[in-house]
Amino acid sequence: MEKGYMQFGCGTTAPDGWLNFDAGPAFWIQSRFPFLKALLAKRGFPIYPGNISYGDVIKGLPVQPQSLEAVYSSHVLEHLSLEEFRITLRNVHRYLRPGGTFRMVLPDLEQLIQAYVKDGSHDAANRFMQESYLGEKSSPRGLRAIPTALFGRSKHLWMWDYKSIEAELAAAGFVAIRRAQLGDSPDPRFSEVESEGRWTGCLGVDCKRP
Fold first, then answer.
1. Which of 210, 4, 6, 199 is nearest to 106 (CA)?
2. 39-60, pLDDT tens digit by residue?
3. pLDDT digits (tens, 9 = 90+) for 170-183
4. Structural domains of the chain, with CATH
């Protein structure tokens, strides 16, 4: 029987009892060329648990429609273009059963802008570009340049505040949309994938498929 809890862009957080998907370049390389794991580890790349499957939520995941109780996404949506983001919402909506929960956390554009406006220092713009990941301090070279060249998913492509993402979720058919805080879901299973470091100072959103 298919597991009823799924996350995409899971990174190295892959608890048992969840369908864990990742499409990051480091995981793509490790999943296809496992003999490179030791070399990648020496270069500072993470080693991924064995219970992760490669899956691109934009292209579609091997999940049956209306089969999931919950879907979780942590710092993934900001790496998608606007078109890809909307495709992703439609896909997630299709995977969830009626009453199922989609819960996400991502950078808060409004908070970043407010911090920039309040920062009167000469370095305010540089700090905003770094903290928003909208710029590049340098271009990667050597082995580290290969994933970027192949996939180009390190930058943030489209940033969100609560008002804008609420409107997009509603347009995609989600209801009961609300701001979320770390650990405030009535479903205790989300504690298996949420971590304080990923939520602090960020935008959390919780919604449901009707």
1. 199
2. 766 676 777 888 999 999 999 9
3. 999 999 999 999 99
4. 5-107+139-208 (3.40.50.150)
